[in-house]
Structure formats: structure tokens, C-alpha cells
Amino acid sequence: MNHRVAVLVLDGAKPLDVGIPAQVFANRPTMPYEVRVCGAAPGPVTGGDGLAYLVADGLEAVERADTVFVPGYRQPATTEPPAAVVEALRAAQARGARLAAISTGAFALAATGLLDGKRATTHWHYTRALAEKFPHVRVDENVLFVDEGDVLTSAGAASGLDLCLHLVRRDHGVGLSNIVARRLVAAPYRSGGQAQYVPRSVPEPLGDVFAETREWALARLGEPLTLEALARNAQVSARTFSRRFVEDTGYTPMQWVLRARVDLARELLELTDLGVEQIAARVGLGSAANLRLHFQRILGTSPTEYRHTFAETS
């Protein structure tokens, strides 16, 4: 049976926040998901940004769902979710469903008490309001999304896409996640720990140069890649490249390269029969021992266990 996803639309819902999970988990033959867009009750729902919604399902869709998304909505600090919605979310979590909020949808999850004592995030503009309204929630304003296992939260709309792709990776591995990212013309991977908002004075053309350098590096992961080589490609000094790369991505250049190599190794483990030693050489990690070391540090598992988990379901 496909994994059932419910997108719960509340009054004032932001259209992009609603559309992202509906699009990522779209009902299609290549996707092991079934998605329903619902409201507190069937019928019209007043949306934000001049749009409205007509939903066919009410909270019964939440009762059947394996994952429930709460998109962001307007005026979250002064708007309380309906009592029936709060109870439906609590009941869903109690029976083992996964709850995920995009942007200010975190306020609705916090109203259930299910975020108490846990890390959470929301759009940077609302992090202070979330912390003030729900002091038992450990609000982190410097991340794209937070995965607390059965309850997840993300920052603004674009980071909702990062969260959705993260869940696809968690459920079915990086191979399917990359397929979805390509379909949506989206970046295949941004870490949840990446800063969502960084005050910066970096000229825009420099960001373009660094994006081109990242693409250049992704095509050469099997080759030796040094900080100096990356900086040379970007046509800046190594010191400048390293500092501004951290501002852009939240990683040092070599941390980013390492994670890109591990991500490529994940895809090769899922989609090929190559041995661990061959994969390590192909992704630029040298030896099977080195691949196992970094796999364990980054993913908390071994290449063999990862292949056993995901190769059959990709």
C-alpha cells in the first residue's frame, strides 16, 4: 500500500506551502505515495495571497494518513487552529503518523503540545513570535528544517521543498529523491542545518560563480578536489572562497565535497551492483575503509546496511 500523505489546509494558507507537498508526493506510477489535500471540513477554505481553496476531504483524511503536512498560514501569532484540528493532529501522532509543518504551520503543531521540549523552526520572520508564544519549544532560527523523528518543521516555502525531499530520501533513499528533484528542477540536496537567512554583502555575480563551481565539482567527484582547485575554478583566493562558501552553504568547501561524495555513493549503492571498494574509488574516497568511516559518521550506518535497506525499494 502506498504511503498516505494528507496536506491540511487551514484558513489563510499560503499557496506555495500547500502546493509543494502536494506536488512532491503527487499521485503517479513512479511514486509510492498517495496524497490528499484536506481541510478542517470539506468545502471552501479562505487562503492567503488572494487565493482560496476548495477541498474535497475533511479531517477524515488526517485520520487515514501516514504523514500529515500543515502548510504555513497568515497571522499565525494571533490565529488559533480549530480545536478539532488540534485533536486530529494529536490523535494522528498517537497512532504513529508523522507530522510535518512548512513555515508558519509550526504554530499549529506547537498548539498541540507535540513540539514541547523539541527543536523546531519556522520562517525566520516568525521565529521570535513562535518562541514567545510557545516557550517550551526549542526554536532554532538558523536552519532550513528540523527532523525530530515523528515531528518535523521547516522554514520558509522553499525549505518546505528541502523537507519534502528529505522525507523521500528517508523513506526510499537518495535515488528516488533525485528523480523527484529532477522532475521539479530543484536542488537535489540542501542540508537541514544550512542557515535559512544570512545577512550578506556578497555580490550576486559571485553567487553565480560559486554555483558554477559546485556544478563543476559534482562532475569531478572521482578526481582529487582541493580547496585550491575549487578556488581556482571560482577565480578567487582560497581564503575568500572558503569564507564565502560557508556563508552560501553552511559547510566548508571540503565538508560539502565529502557529503557530495557520500551522496553519490548512496546512489551507486542503490542503483548499481558495484562493490564497496569500486564505489569508494568512483566517488573519490579512495578505499572501502574510508567510505565506511564517512558513511558511519554522516549517516549512522554502513554501506552494506544502506544497500540492504534501499536497493530493493528504489
Q: Which features would summarize this protein structure in a list?
A:
single chain; 314 residues; alpha/beta; Rossmann fold; Arc Repressor Mutant, subunit A; 2 domains; 6-stranded mixed beta sheet; two-stranded antiparallel sheet; 14 helices; 10 strands; 47% helix; 13% strand
Report on the architecture of this protein.
Helix 1 (15-24) packs parallel to helix 6 (157-172) and helix 12 (276-282) crosses helix 13 (288-299). Mean pLDDT is 89; it is low at 197-206. It contains 14 helices and 10 strands. The strands form 3 sheets. A 6-stranded mixed sheet has the order 2-1-5-6-10-9, with helices on both faces. Strands 3-4 form a two-stranded antiparallel sheet. Strands 7-8 form a two-stranded parallel ribbon. With 314 residues, it is an alpha/beta fold. It folds into 2 domains: 3-184, 3-Layer(aba) Sandwich (Rossmann fold); 203-314, Homeodomain-like (Arc Repressor Mutant, subunit A, Orthogonal Bundle).
Number of domains: 2
Structural class: alpha/beta
Largest sheet: 6 strands, mixed
Please indicate the percent range of residues in DSSP E strands (runs of 2 or more).
5-15%
Order of helices and strands: EHEEEHEHEHEHEEEHHHHHHHHH
Low-confidence stretches: 197-206
CATH architecture of the largest domain: 3-Layer(aba) Sandwich
Largest sheet, spatial ordering of strands: 2-1-5-6-10-9
CATH superfamily of the largest domain: Class I glutamine amidotransferase (GATase) domain
Let me know the average pLDDT.
89
CATH topology-level fold name of the largest domain = Rossmann fold
Radius of gyration: 21 Å
Number of DSSP-assigned strands:
10
| Number of continuous helical runs | 14
What's the helical proportion of residues?
Answer: 40-55%
Shape: globular
* N- and C-termini, Cα separation: 16 Å
CATH class of the largest domain: Alpha Beta
Quaternary structure of the protein: single chain
